[in-house]
């Protein structure tokens, strides 16, 4: 007992030391930018860049909670008088914040019904006679969920208990290929599930806000689906293949598992009134999202309407108190990163950052559309390895790419879309995406288990995005040359 206490104390001390080191590194970066930028750089722009770097390092290293970092960046901007309070808090007025909130509330409501359990058990009862059937079934389940559950983390959390029960049922141990196949496959399925559905990933929603903010242009739900669907489809074929080849499963008996899934499916019984209401409201919401070009409502409007209907007495099926129990850290993160985007514009910092990268080599690369797309996709992957938070990566990288595209005469819309889609795909490091973090949290897979499939999945995604850009986008006229 005493030995266990000592080990726990050492772990806590190491964790504290790591957090102190991370915070010190972020503070050093902040003061370095503040003091070392050329004298001709205005105070407002200098402060904005310093706070941006400070926030990036804290969000990436997480010595303090994400929400606390978000508030700290805003407080610094105000204390140092970089911008007015209206600009510093402007991100929280964005529709994207309310769409994220509505998405989390929708997930809470859906989770109050056995709908997802029913869908899962139905798939496994049909395809659960072999490891390949189970693997593909759960992989596709997460893609279907993307239409209705607007958050990769929530989709992964819904599926993980099922995956763990499957691993236990077949007797697979920690370190077995089957465990790695199922868990890493789940993480990667979550990473690609938001590719073609505008509302299914925070990065997509933030991209729309950035396009509107910087270019005064936007993409509808249908536009996003049209341009990204081939990427999504090809990834649904390539990623399972890569994970399967990396971790070919052991020979387990799945007959009992399939029978168990059939029993669980039968135990749920016929569709309940709650489920029918849920299906009707979700279907109506998706239809409104898909027909945005007809009615003109921002995707936030149908999402908020769905939340009201879910909790409305006599109409809905869930109490309001359960629906509003959302992750407020995520709300603060989205609002703060959007505010930073506005701050970069207001202070001129974004133009300064773009001009710093305005070298002959960069302009030459951006002057060739074929090379520009490939460079942007690769740079987006590399940037995401360093800036592991997807929201932060999108909000800080896309404005710089817009500036470079404008300087070189390249269409910024194409550059932004290619980069945004690429930043969704974090396959190599655990900290790159929430699905990776959630899967790693089971304790059954380690960081080293991600390296090989993650590397090949990254290569595959780069090739697929570039190939779709060079063909599909040009055929549709999205990329005029």
TrEMBL record:
Record's keyword terms, sorted: Membrane, Symport, Transmembrane, Transmembrane helix, Transport
Keyword Iron-sulfur: no
Membrane topology qualifier: Multi-pass membrane protein
Any one of the GO CC terms: plasma membrane
InterPro entries per record: SLC13A/DASS
Family per record: Belongs to the SLC13A/DASS transporter (TC 2.A.47) family. NADC subfamily.
Name of this protein: Sodium-dependent dicarboxylate transporter SdcS
Species of the source: Compostibacillus humi
